[in-house]
Design brief:
single chain; 987 residues; six-stranded antiparallel β-sheet; five-stranded antiparallel β-sheet
Length: 987
């Protein structure tokens, strides 16, 4: 088989592709920024493509294959880009199927089949067929963003493949075009010239090496070509990773899931002991698990640190757990099966070694504790990418599998192998199928030479147990070179001959499986240089290195999922545009390329970097929803700081970025000046002039200033005051609450401060007010003016820190009202002033209003909120019978969490409907010229439809100034704050 010939410089591949596909730049993109976004997938590998193509139709795919075939250009198919082994990166054309080819074209409930385009996201298929009581069986943890074409490429499996089989077992037929340019329907009995001879001469002699157990995914699954195995070309092509054909459509089989499920959680002293219990659990005649997963307790510890302990239900004693899902015709039946299984496990009937006699049995379904546990398991690929000590861990040996009967013994030897190499990793996986996932703390950036010897020893170990190098993600660039440890030369020759039938010139995904690239070629981490931002964030969790921070993104692409529907908030701009550029991952990839310097070569001022960051809303949702805590808002601010420090900045950095300064100037001129300014800005021509000068989109209304000199304005302006009058007197010896009146509250809605003061006193606090222009510098931070931000934060500490001093009285709590400002104190403050001891004290004392009313610590969990309800009897009945539609501000969700707010509202008798998703305004983002369309599109994704669909008479609640502004301007509705709703429920 000939390797692709090098292209000559004068060959214009891009021109040929544009000519063949109609010339659209949004279909054929060879920009540096786009190539950077697609230089990696979810693996350790970096291969920069020549061009990225977004086919709109099958004809577009055929045209691309034809151009690549004629020009000998490598062609790599890509779905969601979640491939962990480097299967979806290539040096020539990368064909992104997931942008346009996302249709489920037919569903046949009687035949239990569906016909799909290759870019259909698995969850979209599940929704389409779920209406008929059916589902597609395999379900990788990336189900919210992986595509069916990608699943076919890798022979994906997931937790429930235990019950339903791999993707290969669920494919009826494939519509493919091969490297010769020939399109065919691959199915059982499909005739291809030379295929029968290949089966006879090549496959049958090595049949004993193929298909030995269910998770043997490495290599090609040529056993499906044997007549006794169905002679099925479609199944043989599944798992070939785009090296033999490009999938342009598929017919897949569907299954009927159980009507109800339950989850048994069994605790064991270690992972190997848990694995020992698997064979007996599988053999139980009465329960037949739908899924049987293993989970290292250290992964749960990561969740507790990252998301709070309340994100994890109480689990049985142990350092490892088996999660066993059972099914039934109803919830009671599923739970009964799970309880019987748990009793057998505790009694030793289905496996000895439980850490205690206890087991947890939970009913399944959305919103349950079982769903929370499954979420931890699904986030394993991200959660495991940092060791308990915080060091990077990589998918170097990600998904090896052995027959389940040998799993415990294999794990003991594997853990000994890790120890011999001085390595560690957090284990989890599909234990019922013998498949183990692990991220390993190999020092790839510093010592990449340690990778190869470890991998060869690991390959020999798994082969010695009759296992597979890959149990579901395929070989890709990570394992192709290791196949001799598992397959004979004769078997590998059969693989090569099979590829030669369909791709004789080797243009389809070269370097993968057949003629593989070395496992340590094209590694991404070693190619990145350290980036330390002078005067920037401390980045304490990443050793002060922005390169280490952006390499937190390992590409699992949770940011590409419709998280608004799944209870998360990221990534709002991607949900609006569907463009990889606007995902957290896409931005991280470009920043990684900036650190590399060979493709994105302009450093901090690279146009590619500023282009990819332009539509980042700085919502901080990724810092919470991303399983590896990528914080793109911080990275964006760091880049802006480095790029513009001591240079002329964009206009909006001075106008919107200095908004608190302009408001303070108005206050110094007196209430009359503020009132006059408010009146002038309501005059159309003046407003248009101000917006034009400030860089504000002309379609935006300017928020109304709080003018006048009434008692509310006076309250907001006081820097410190004695106890305020309240409806009911505060306890004379009650704890002290310092109510911090931020710039937005003081400047636009100071009545919120009056309502909050009243509530705090009713809760028994002595209340003092801090304000007087003490600013958290939020707008300086979001525009990357970090030197100015630090100056303002120090002045704020001068105001707030005295309240945290430990003297005769207990330290006060500091109560924030505007969520984004409160989040600055809880997160950015210590990152910008790491050496100021006052910063930690103030951060630790800062509470949201709801947390203060609960008497809970910062970041109150669901359990703490539940415990504290008894303290809120004075609120009982205030919102009885009312529905509250609540929009958590993105920073509230990301930094503080919203459980305390829900607990307070429910204690007042409300039924709470918590919205998920960004409002789209995001401070200065939605006001700036050039962002309006995306801002509206973000709002239309979830926020505005929820407001339109709110029940009549519902209370519309939003603490965020941006959220309230967006609701008023785009939906014409007024949303109220928690303080106002509780203090004046009758309004």
């Amino acid at each position: 088989m000939a390797a692709p010939k090098p292209r000559h410089e004068h060959d214009d591949l891009v021109a040929e592709l544009r000519g063949a596909l109609g010339g659209a730049d949004d279909v054929v993109d060879d920009s540096t920024r786009r190539r950077a976004e697609y230089s990696s997938d979810a693996s350790n590998y970096r291969v920069v493509p020549r061009v990225v193509v977004f086919p709109r139709t099958v004809d577009d795919i055929l045209a691309v294959v034809d151009v690549c075939r004629r020009t000998r250009t490598p062609l790599t198919s890509r779905g969601g880009g979640t491939s962990i082994a480097g299967n979806a990166v290539g040096p020539g054309v990368v064909l992104d199927m997931g942008r346009h080819l996302r249709r489920v074209t037919a569903v046949d409930p009687d035949a239990r089949t569906a016909t799909v385009e290759p870019g259909v996201v698995l969850d979209d298929l599940q929704r389409a067929v779920g209406r008929h009581g059916l589902r597609f069986g395999p379900d990788p943890s990336t189900h919210a963003r992986c595509t069916i074409g990608g699943m076919i490429g890798n022979n994906a499996c997931g937790a429930r493949a235990l019950a339903y089989g791999t993707t290969a077992a669920n494919v009826v037929a494939l519509d493919v075009v091969d490297g010769r340019g020939e399109r065919r329907r691959a199915a059982p009995g499909t005739a291809v010239a030379g295929l029968e001879a290949l089966v006879t001469e090549r496959v049958r002699p090595v049949a004993g090496e193929l298909g030995r157990f269910g998770r043997q995914v490495s290599g090609y699954s040529l056993e499906h070509l044997l007549p006794e195995r169905g002679g099925d070309l479609a199944r043989a092509l599944v798992g070939t990773e785009g090296t033999c054909a490009v999938v342009v459509g598929a017919e897949v089989a569907l299954v009927e899931p159980p009507a109800a499920t339950a989850l048994a959680v069994l605790g064991y002293p270690d992972m190997a002991t848990a694995a020992d219990a698997v064979p007996a659990l599988l053999a139980g005649a009465d329960h037949g698990p739908v899924a049987l997963e293993g989970l290292d307790a250290r992964l749960v510890d990561v969740v507790k640190r990252h998301r709070s302990a309340g994100a994890v239900p109480d689990l049985p004693a142990g350092a490892a757990w088996l999660l066993v899902e059972t099914g039934g015709t109803d919830e009671a039946g599923a739970v009964a099966v799970a309880r019987r299984l748990a009793r057998e496990a505790a009694g030793g009937t289905s496996g000895a070694g439980l850490a205690s006699g206890d087991a947890l049995v939970l009913a399944g379904g959305p919103g349950t504790a079982a769903a929370a546990i499954w979420r931890i398991r699904e986030d394993g690929a991200g959660l495991g990418s940092r060791t308990p000590a915080g060091a990077p861990a990589w998918p170097a040996w990600e998904d090896a599998a052995v027959p389940p009967a040998t799993l415990g013994a294999y794990l003991r030897e594997f853990e000994a192998l890790l120890a011999d190499h001085g390595l560690d990793g957090l284990l989890y996986g599909h234990f019922g199928d013998g498949c183990v996932h692990v991220r390993i703390d190999l020092p790839l950036a510093e010592h990449p030479g340690r990778l190869r010897p470890f991998l060869w020893e690991a390959a020999a170990l798994v082969a010695g147990y009759g296992g597979s190098l890959s149990g579901e993600h395929g070989d890709g660039r990570a394992r192709g070179e290791l196949l001799p440890a598992m397959y004979s030369a004769q078997a590998r020759a059969a693989f090569s001959a099979f590829k030669g039938l369909f791709d004789p010139d080797g243009i389809l995904n070269p370097g993968v499986i057949v003629d593989p690239a070395p496992v340590d070629a094209d590694l991404r981490p070693p190619a990145a240089r350290p980036l330390r931002v002078a005067g920037g964030f401390a980045l304490r969790a990443d050793g002060g290195d922005l390169t280490s921070a952006v390499h937190r993104c390992v590409g699992v692409a949770k940011c590409r999922a419709d998280n608004g529907g799944a209870g998360g908030f990221m990534c709002p701009s991607f949900l609006a545009t569907g463009d990889e550029r606007d995902s957290t991952r896409g931005r991280a990839r470009v920043l990684q390329e900036m650190a590399n310097g060979s493709l994105v070569a302009g450093g901090w001022r690279s146009p590619e970097v500023h282009d990819v960051l332009d539509l980042c809303l700085s919502c901080k949702a990724c810092s919470r929803d991303c399983p590896v805590a990528v914080d793109m808002a911080t990275y964006k601010a760091s880049v802006l700081h480095a790029a513009y420090r001591r240079r002329l900045r964009p206009r909006t950095h001075y106008t919107l970025g200095w908004l608190p300064r302009w408001l303070a100037l108005g206050r110094r001129l007196g209430p009359g000046a503020l009132h006059g300014a408010a009146r002038v800005l309501r005059w159309g021509p003046a407003a248009r002039l101000v917006k034009s000068a400030a860089g504000i989109d002309g379609r935006r209304d300017l928020p109304a200033l709080a003018g006048g000199a009434g008692p509310v304005a006076a309250l907001a302006a006081r820097a410190a005051a004695g106890p305020l009058a309240a409806r009911s007197p505060a306890a004379p010896e009650g704890p002290l609450a310092v109510l911090w009146v931020d710039t937005f509250t003081a400047g636009f809605r100071p009545e919120v401060a009056r309502a909050a003061a009243s509530l705090l006193q009713e809760a028994g606090y002595r209340v003092e007010v801090a304000g007087g222009g003490a600013c958290c510098a939020l707008t300086w931070i979001t525009t990357g003016q970090l030197d100015g931000a630090r100056r303002r934060l120090r002045r704020l500490l001068d105001v707030l820190a005295p309240a945290t001093a430990t003297g005769g009285d207990a330290p006060a709590v500091i109560v924030g009202l505007e969520p984004s400002c409160t989040a600055v104190l809880r997160s950015d403050l210590e990152e910008l002033l790491p050496s100021d001891p006052r910063a930690a004290a103030v951060a630790g004392a800062t509470r949201t209003l709801a947390e203060a009313l609960l008497g809970a610590g910062g970041g109150a969990t669901s359990a703490q909120a539940e415990t504290a309800r008894a303290d809120l009897s004075w609120l009982a009945g205030r919102l009885a019978g009312r529905t509250v539609v609540a929009q958590p501000h993105c920073h509230h969700h990301a930094v503080m969490g919203y459980d305390a707010d829900v607990a307070v509202l429910e204690a007042a008798g409300a039924s709470v409907r918590r919205l998920a998703g960004c409002c789209g305004l995001a401070g200065n983002f939605g006001m700036e010229r050039g962002h309006y369309e995306v801002s509206v599109a973000v709002a239309e994704h979830a926020f505005l439809p929820a407001l339109r669909g709110a029940p009549e008479g519902a209370v519309l609640l939003a603490d965020g100034f941006s959220c309230r502004t967006q609701a008023a301007q785009l939906a014409g509705v007024e949303m109220r704050t928690l303080a106002e709703v509780l203090a004046r429920p009758e309004d």
